[in-house]
Specification:
Layout: E1 6-11, E2 14-19, E3 34-40, E4 43-47, E5 54-57, H1 73-77, H2 79-82, E6 88-89
Antiparallel strand pairs: 1-2, 3-4, 3-6, 4-5
Length: 90
């Protein structure tokens, strides 16, 4: 019984199946929509339905009010006020 639907390729005695559908493989410059699945130190883990979860760094997020400064320990403590689990981001 096959576990994957796809095209069968045979080389001598080796039989492999190339799947019709595969997981998303992101590239630089892609616009993606994801769901926050975890909050770690200085970063959020984002589920993007790909091979791996994406990472959104605290330093990559605009602070409220458009403030431009170094991120502090207080910013790390208030990360859940910006994004929390199950929030959608793009």
């Amino acid at each position: 019984v096959a576990a994957v639907a796809g095209n069968v390729s045979r080389v001598n005695k080796l039989i492999s199946v190339n799947p019709n559908r595969s997981r998303y493989i992101g590239e630089v410059g892609d616009l993606v929509i994801g769901r926050i699945c975890g909050v770690d130190m200085k970063r959020w883990k984002v589920e993007i339905a790909g091979q791996r979860d994406a990472v959104l760094q605290l330093s990559a997020v605009n602070l409220p009010g458009g403030v431009q400064r170094m991120r502090t320990y207080e910013d790390q403590l208030s990360m859940r006020t910006l994004f929390s689990e199950n929030d959608l981001v793009s």
